[in-house]
Predict the structure.
Amino acid sequence: MNPATLAAFCLVAIVAIALPGPTVLLAMANGSRFGTRRAVYGMLGAVAADVVFVTAVALGLGALLRASEVAFSVIKWVGVAYLVYLGIRLLFSKGHLATLEDDDPRGSRRAVFMRCFLVAVTNPKAYLFTGALLPQFIDPTSPQLVQYLIIGTVFCAIDFAIMFAYAAAGSTVVKLLKQRGALWLDRICGAVLLVLSGALALTRRASA
């Protein structure tokens, strides 16, 4: 993979990932509720999902989702249900500001990791997006495994960096606005997640 191709991929990936979606909004919510350090575990969950996406593309599973209505629908509706669940939870939250010493299991490292991983991995649009994007930057005449390792590593790094920025922004907003800021940021993120769940529910395989 030549440097120009990799640079072009980085540019496209940055623009695509930076647009507000479920995982970056969840990173912001985690940053506001638990702080940037705890939110890192959520970012790692999303990065783990990125590894699943890249592996799926390399194995041709993205094409399966494009071809199979059943597989696409199962993943889609699981994702919709989970986004609705998280959106409602954030809408009705009390803007609790957690600390690393909290015993609330919803703010544990494992819980934060799993929430972000499940939000990402149950989004069929992510499979379709990576399935359409990544092969465009793969040279079919060269060994593909190495290329997918390089492009997958870069994709995960960009995703992590952008989510970290969102989490830091959420944490900064809450520090400035205190408890009321946490309450309203939770509500905004919850409302947007519900809107995104609606958009996902309306997504059709043929038009994805």
User: Anything to note?
Assistant: Helices lie at 3-18, 22-34, 36-59, 61-67, 69-91, 109-121, 124-133, 144-201. Residues 48 and 117 are 7 Å apart (CA to CA). The chain has one domain: 23-201.
